[in-house]
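User: Teach me something about this protein's shape.
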Amino acid sequence: MKKSKEHSQGIIIEFDSGVIPPPFSHYYRLALDWRERTLAADFEIHYTNREDLTEEEILDEGFTTEDDFSFKGELDYVWKKVLSQEFEKIKWSGRPPEEGGLSISALIDGKAGTAKSPENQEAWQMLAQDVIQAIFETAKKEAPLTVNYRLVDNDKIQDCAITMKFSSRQAIFQSKDESKEINWEYAVQLLKMVFTPDYNYELAKENPSNKRGSYIECGDGYWHELGKGVVNIDTSFDAVDKIKSGFENLLS
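Assistant: First, the predicted structure itself:
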């Protein structure tokens, strides 16, 4: 297996959501080829078993009737380094791919090797989702995500934002005084915290408050006050405080 890793010229990632019900159930195939000093991507995703659902049932779950998508094109070469490094240190589960889950095969001379299941399924699923988001941005299917934050303390208002550009794997921090690229992993972990608590949209506002407090807007136009409209789901884990400290560290 070591030899195929050393000579791999790309990878193919396949994912099957398994037994989860529609409209969530889906399958995707993501082929990434870096033989020619470019990163060529061939991607398709298909949502399965929707035949017995009405359009209303699909829309009620936040989907559309046209969620299937395919893409062939080039991605920013920055992703090649990330993917190849992760593939070089991969550990295999030793189990054959089964229904449900993710499998990976190496591309060697344009041909796919044997598909195997990585030991760390969750990490590879998350990495694949990052690449898929890069594809969506490259194809102009989705815009980069921007999360806005406001801190009001002692009548001083500080506004800032983080924009995640998956297409180029850049995290851009913007405030009144500066715009700079920040550490990608720091931004990813901070945004994971952002989407961890519970958001009460009945308390949300279309404009941020000028009253003392911390406020966040997650890209949908609605502002929430941390600690009131945004509350921890798990009382043993203070995600709200981590959001505050994460943004305020960037503001300091």
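Now, about its shape. The radius of gyration is 21 Å. Helices lie at 2-7, 55-60, 78-88, 121-138, 184-194, 239-251. If you'd like, I can walk through any region in more detail.
User: That's plenty for now, thanks!
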